[in-house]
Amino acid sequence: MSGTLVLVRHGQSDWNLKNLFTGWKDPDLTELGIQEANAGGAALADYGIKFDVAYTSALVRAQHTLKLILDKVGQPNLETIRDQALNERDYGDLSGLNKDDARAKWGEEQVHVWRRSYDVPPPGGESLRDTGARVWPYYLTEILPRVLRGEKVLVAAHGNSLRSLVMVLDKLSKEGVLALNLATGVPMVYKLNADSTVASKEVLGDMSGAH
Ligand SMILES: O=C(O)[C@@H](CO)OP(=O)(O)O
């Protein structure tokens, strides 16, 4: 058995609440988002884990979520590395648009393909494959070596940047990843084998309501 990798999507942001495509835009958490991050932190405290290092994106909603979690697990001063490689998928021209307005304009199916497909980019933005092409190398070179040394590593990031990682860890197909939605503030605890494959995965909360 090697180390532990914990992935958590940030709590609800202002733009999640307003139903706007967000991407690299930088809204903070809502009150509910703060509660979700605190609940995720409390679940990790109950689980009894102490981290060796934390990673987050260059965006406030993920950084704020990480801070709340670290307070809950009693590690407010933990070494934290921020990198835009972990940023949300760039939504391009959709950024800032209302998701229902986009459905009315382009149709339900097209918007679902832009939101959840593997290799169809939204106009001017990144497909999930494009996002994975920056998240995965960062994971391999920066995060995974520390996990393989036996460390416990926390990553607070975003719905789609984490979907690109979970797709590989969980061995999901292009079709399988269409249905993958991550809930806000719910930690996923992966134990990795020494060869970097997944030994076990535990979800500390309810993923069923995610959309
Ligand atoms: O707007 C976004 O950046 C993402 C995450 O909130 O939205 P979606 O769930 O549509 O990919």
From TrEMBL:
The record marks H158 as: Transition state stabilizer. InterPro entries: His_Pase_superF_clade-1 (IPR013078), His_PPase_superfam (IPR029033), PG/BPGM_mutase_AS (IPR001345), Phosphogly_mut1 (IPR005952). GO terms for molecular function: phosphoglycerate mutase activity. It catalyses: (2R)-2-phosphoglycerate = (2R)-3-phosphoglycerate. Its EC number is 5.4.2.11. Keywords: Gluconeogenesis, Glycolysis, Isomerase. It is an enzyme of class 5 (isomerase). Substrate binds at residues 9-16, 22-23, 61, 88-91, 99, 115-116, 159-160. Catalyzes the interconversion of 2-phosphoglycerate and 3-phosphoglycerate. Belongs to the phosphoglycerate mutase family. BPG-dependent PGAM subfamily. Homodimer. PANTHER family: PHOSPHOGLYCERATE MUTASE. This is 2,3-bisphosphoglycerate-dependent phosphoglycerate mutase. It comes from Rhizobium vallis.
